[in-house]
Write a structure and sequence with these properties.
By secondary structure, this protein is an alpha/beta fold. It is built from 16 helices and 15 strands. The protein has 2 domains: 143 residues, Aspartate Aminotransferase, domain 1, CATH 3.90.1150; 278 residues, Type I PLP-dependent aspartate aminotransferase-like (Major domain) (Aspartate Aminotransferase, domain 2). The structure holds pyridoxal-5'-phosphate. This is Aspartate aminotransferase family protein.
């Protein structure tokens, strides 16, 4: 890091509080300042180039230098830089995007609603669900179930849905009415000898027990990511979603698919819901919707949601919810162009074929002494690192090995991310097989460097 007092790094330390960062350690270590990007690469201030193997935050599908998105932004910015959708106002980019999303949905959806982040979208989903329960004359139906290790964002409602300790501790969360059920992680959570299907049945039983204990008439909805992302890229075991959905429909509980990471091709299908046979009432979309060139998110809601909400807004006089920046014209125009690019270039097909190559190369490392589990689908994967393969115990403390290997990855020219000891891979959907090879080669070198540090017994 450039330690001069007026360097960008020093000014970052002086003036900027970072998200998801240890603020005291940051004062010592300083930031990695990324200055530019092209394709799957980003470059720091010193001119070091990295493969961005996390696509930023799981989001830059089309890569970091897509001129068509820049042009779409400039065109819209010149024509109508801002408008909104309050009080029946609308604008063409929002209408185009709403129509496109409803048509793309894998199940019948009625309307799109626009927000600015995944967290806001989940918050909005929760409010819509409560509003609907009141509209239907079921005011007791307010509880929401999500999962331990699920990630739904950081606003008060979304962080409550999130099932990760760091999002709750010292924030006085979760709020009331949010319940958490078991994590669908077979490798870590299954009983000895329990098959994936048996494990899925047990988790569906856990869910049913929770519903019965709370009173089915009090449970409004279940939130889940098709694949858990920030919780460590946890791929559901065989039969999981089918069995969970059977329980939900038995008690008439709504299903929200948080497609913020899986949506728009990540799993090798347009939506994770297709990969896992999920039939949601609400889909939450963000990130790859615009390749995160601009912030935008959306909810798709079905008729079961829309009809009572429309009636209630009529009874009250308005649907009292909306964001100044919701469906921002420039963000909507960029998102629309981005979705056209994903379709034209068949990036979903690329996620399938190049993703299969990524999964195969990573699985070849399964017997490495520091590797506990390799998991993933399409262009999303994680390798969970362990200090001891037999007991699945971490090296030193939980997350220490993940952090070590993640550091070596950066030295080897690849930006990855460790969630505890799970090292994640989620590259731009434009990545090629030779580029995947570069990522996995760097990972192999990083593992070897870690072996040297971890000690001879491994
Ligand atoms: C599945 C999922 N839902 C919601 C969010 C929250 O999105 P945001 O950070 O845009 O608020 C994320 C962010 O990573 C996510 O992965």
């Amino acid at each position: 890091m450039d330690a001069r007092p007026n360097s960008p790094e020093a000014r970052d330390i002086s003036y900027h509080l970072h998200g998801y960062t240890n603020a005291r350690k940051h004062e010592e270590a300083g930031p990695l300042v990324i200055e530019k990007g092209d394709g799957i690469y980003v470059e720091d201030l010193a001119g070091n180039r990295y493969i961005e193997a996390m696509a930023g935050l799981w989001s830059v599908a089309v890569g970091f230098s897509e001129k068509r998105l820049v042009d779409a932004a400039v065109r819209q910015m010149s024509k109508l830089p801002y408008y909104h959708d309050f009080g029946s106002k609308s604008h063409s980019p929002l209408i185009d995007l709403a129509e496109k999303l409803v048509q793309m949905a894998p199940v019948s959806m009625s309307k799109a609603y626009f927000t600015n982040s995944g967290s806001e979208a989940n918050d909005t989903a929760m409010k819509m669900i409560w509003y609907r329960s009141n509209a239907l004359g079921q005011p007791a139906r307010k509880k929401i179930i999500s999962r331990n290790r699920g990630y739904h964002g950081v606003t008060i409602a979304a962080a409550s849905l999130t099932g990760l300790p760091n999002n709750h501790i010292s924030f006085d969360l979760p709020i009331a009415n949010v319940l958490h059920t078991s994590t669908p992680h077979h490798w870590r959570e299954a009983l000895p000898g329990e098959s994936e299907k048996q494990f899925s049945s047990r988790l569906a039983d856990d869910l049913e027990k929770l519903i019965l204990a709370e009173g089915p008439e009090t449970i409004a909805a279940f939130f889940g990511e098709p694949i858990m992302g920030a919780g460590g890229v946890i791929v559901p075991p065989a039969g999981y979603w089918e069995k969970i959905q059977a329980v939900l429909s038995k008690y008439d509980i709504l299903l929200v698919a948080d497609e913020v990471i899986c949506g728009f091709g990540r799993t090798g299908e347009m939506f994770g819901s297709q990969t896992f046979g999920i039939r949601p009432d609400i889909m939450v979309l963000s990130k790859q919707i615009s390749s995160s060139y601009l912030p935008i998110s959306a909810l798709l809601i079905n008729e079961k949601m829309f009809e009572p909400i429309a009636d209630e807004s009529n009874r009250i006089g308005t649907f009292g919810h909306g964001f100044t920046g919701g469906g921002h014209p420039v963000a909507a125009a960029v998102a629309f162009e981005n979705l056209k690019l994903i379709e034209e270039r068949d990036l979903v097909g690329n996620a399938r074929t190049v993703g299969a190559h990524l999964q195969k190369r990573l699985r070849n490392l399964a017997s490495h002494p520091l590797v506990g589990e390799v998991r993933g689908v399409g262009l999303i994967a994680a390798v969970e690192l362990v200090g001891d393969q037999a007991s699945k115990a971490p090296w030193e403390t939980a997350g220490a090995l993940g952090g070590l290997v993640n550091g070596f990855m950066q030295q080897n020219g690849v930006i990855s991310r460790n969630m505890g000891d799970a090292l994640a891979f989620c590259p731009p959907l434009i990545i090629t097989e030779p580029q995947v090879d570069q990522v996995v080669d760097a990972f192999e070198r990083s593992l070897e460097a870690a072996v040297k540090q971890v000690g001879p017994e491994t």
